[in-house]
Design brief:
about 80 residues, 4-stranded mixed beta sheet, 4 helices, 4 strands, about 45% helix, globular
């Protein structure tokens, strides 16, 4: 499951703004987006990932994604380096 990928990743970047910034730098292998996040929040991440040809994996829960990242709040998007 993608939550496991987040846990095993060499490095992670949590949050939409930071993810977009990292995507533009070209240092990201994959983006994980929570399906229950507002599309207005994740649209920029998804479009930037598509522009940079970075694979996008969808997970079902912001809360679970945040927990996998080790934070107490939900995460809409996470960038991972494998």
């Amino acid at each position: 499951m993608s939550y496991d990928k987040v846990l095993q990743a060499k490095s992670i970047i949590v949050g939409t703004k930071q993810t977009v910034k990292a995507l533009k730098l070209g240092t990201i292998d994959e983006v994980v987006v929570a399906s229950d996040a507002d599309t207005r929040v994740t649209a920029k991440v998804v479009s930037t990932a598509n522009e940079m040809n970075v694979p996008i994996v969808y997970v079902d829960s912001m809360k679970k994604l945040g927990k996998a990242c080790g934070i107490e709040v939900g995460a809409a998007a996470v960038a991972i380096s494998i």
